[in-house]
Amino acid sequence: MLSVSPARHGRVLGVSDHSVEVREHVTRLDAALKFMATALPPASPRPAAPFAGEPLLVKDLDLKLADAPLWRGNHVLREHGTVSGHDDPLGRRLRELGFDIVGRTKSAEFGLAVTTEPLAYGPVHNPWEHGRGAGGSSGGSACAVAARAVRIAHGTDLGGSLRIPAAHCGVFALKPGLARPATTPTLAAWNQHGFLASRAGDLRRMLPVLGLDRVPDADRAGTEGATRRLRVGVLTSAVSSAIDLGAGTVEAVERMAAKLSDLGHQVLPAHPRVLEQFDQFTVKTTPMLAGWLAEEVADASKDLGRPLTETDMEPGTAHMLAMAALATPEAVRDTAQWLHRLVMDLTAWWERFDVLLSPTVPVQAPRLGWFDDPDTAMHRTFGMMQYTAMFNASGQPAVNVPCAGAGALPYGVQLVGAHGSEAKLLDLAEELSPGEAPTPPVSGDRGLG
Questions:
Q1: How high is the pLDDT of residue 43?
Q2: Which domain holds residue 356?
Q3: Is 447 a member of any domain?
Q4: Which are the contacts of 377, defined by CB distance < 8 A and separation ≥ 6?
């Protein structure tokens, strides 16, 4: 996949041997799992930077890096070799902090799917079982971290796109929250940059990168990151009619609930009842999602130099884009008012509880192609998002914690906190699952130190 000889390139630019070895390591694993969209050449080292030389993969979707490819999972953008004209704020910060950005990982086209099987460059395979999906839309990043290609990878999350693939691949993921509930009639505030990692502690290291390093003293005990005794509500039932829970999913949540109780936390069967309005939530917000997609397509068209047409996209993307016509000013206003009431009801639950423990996804990773049938694809997509999407609307932080299953595939449980509780959630995740996430059958054969 690399278009240059790493060793020769390293001698010319003074790139470290470690950077060369990492790229070779990533390329070897990608040959088996197909998680890469494209590799990126090493940048000039910044030895004094806080994350100097630390390998990082970034998702091929929203993150802009000047002069680097940005294809958004679309075959036309890939064929034309479109690149970003500038760094966006996070892209610039990652460069300044010294990360060695190794390449871009595959994304579902425009981030719309909960699996990563774009026609532009083929499916990502789950490292736990070839032929299973890696989740989406950050499936390339989740797969790469699970396989130990890199320790940390970037992703984005509009309705679960970090947490869903993290659950399917068996890694930690953080969807950061907003400073306050997001009740505006635009999905731009719902779409959050975040990271996936093989250790919860590595996600904590990324909090300053996201500007989330200020932690209220009341949320920390002050000794080695330990959390105080928390009041935890547990949800073990489906909140959507689209997909019911597998028995193993329920067992995984109950096992983690028991562990939290053993750790001294107060654990009760409880959840915000408003989550049970999820089916109505999807109907109300789908036109808004289509409107957001129209803005993303328009931005991509600028990179391309011409408008993207319906024939330039996958059928599912074109179908969703056509629904943007339903997002009239009146419909958007009515939806915004409905969402405001829903979010107020949802977040009020955290006045009595500290954390919600739930499944991240209702079932383990399905086989590739499970979302192909146009008659069931949207139904199954929303069903997979039933525990994740409302917390994009509310702007609350959420963490996926990997959980080993009885079979080959992992499970994921989700921790959701009040606004500003990212560090608390990561502390709790580390209590639940200290150290490295489980290692899948297809993985790197050396450490990533």
A1: 86
A2: 6-432
A3: no
A4: 316, 371
As a whole number of angstroms, the distance between CA 45 and CA 113 comes to: 36
Helices (H), 206-361: 247-262, 278-304, 315-322, 329-348
**List of residues 6+ apart from 313 with CB closer than 8 A:** 74, 109, 110, 297, 321
* CA quadruple 244, 247, 252, 256: dihedral, nearest 10: 90
Number of folded domains in the chain? 1
Enumerate residues 6+ apart whose C-beta is below 8 A from 305: none
Residue 77 lies in a domain: yes
Is-above-0.85 flag for pTM? Answer: yes
Contact 122, 109 (CB under 8 A): no
- In this structure, is residue 444 part of a structural domain? no
DSSP H stretches of helix in 50-179: 75-79, 89-96, 139-146, 163-169
CA 271 to chain centre: 23
- pLDDT of residue 449 exceeding 70, the answer is no
Upper half-sphere CA count for residue 324 (Cβ side, 13 Å): 15
| Contacts of 438 by beta carbon, 8 Å cutoff, 6+ apart | 170, 402, 404, 410
CB within 8 Å of 253: residues ≥ 6 apart: 234, 235, 236, 357, 358, 359, 413
pLDDT band for position 7 (50/70/90)? Answer: very low
pLDDT class of 184 with cuts at 50, 70, 90: low
Q: Which 8-state DSSP code applies to residue 31?
A: H
Q: How far apart are CA 27 and CA 148, in angstroms?
A: 12
DSSP state of 10: H
pLDDT at 445 (0 to 100): 52
CATH of the domain at 65: 3.90.1300.10
The H or E element spanning position 174 is: strand 172-175
Q: What pLDDT sits at residue 188?
A: 74
| Residue 1 domain flag | no
Smallest CA-to-CA distance from 300 within 74, 79, 26 is with 74
Rg (CA), the chain: 21
